[in-house]
Amino acid sequence: AHALRPIIHHTLRTGVVASGVLLAAGLLLTAVCASTLPTDVPAFGDVLRGALRWDGPSLLALGLLVLMATPVARVAVLAAGWLWTGDRRFGLVAAAVLAILLGSVALGVG
Fold first, then answer.
1. Which long-range contacts (CB under 8 A, 24 or more apart) does 26-31 make?
2. CA-CA distance, 14 to 5, in Å (whole number)?
3. How far is CA 12 from CA 16, 19, 37, in A?
4. Cβ-based neighbour number of residue 14 at 10 Å
5. Among 8, 21, 27, 43, which residue is least crowded by beta carbons within 10 Å?
6. d(C-alpha 103, C-alpha 84), whole Å
């Protein structure tokens, strides 16, 4: 478990920094371009297409999605790391938690 700490730290830090950069860029572009924020939840594909066009509200949405995905990435890294190092019990529990998280996202629950 100690060997996984730097990897987990890097995963969390990368997610938070990437999210912060996307949120800051989105906020700046939304303010400068006088964009209006959407009143409904945009589809994921629309968010990606908008972010590639440097659309402020799309960058804001992508920043929030990256921030929400960061803990899920942590669980995935932990599951893979524990299974890789031979700690089956923790690896399988983390894999089960990951399956529940991904299933709830796929089903739109929670």
1. 26/56, 26/57, 26/58, 26/59, 26/60, 26/61, 26/62, 26/63, 27/56, 27/60, 28/56, 29/54, 29/55, 29/56, 29/59, 30/56, 30/57, 30/60, 31/56
2. 14
3. 6, 11, 28
4. 13
5. 43
6. 23
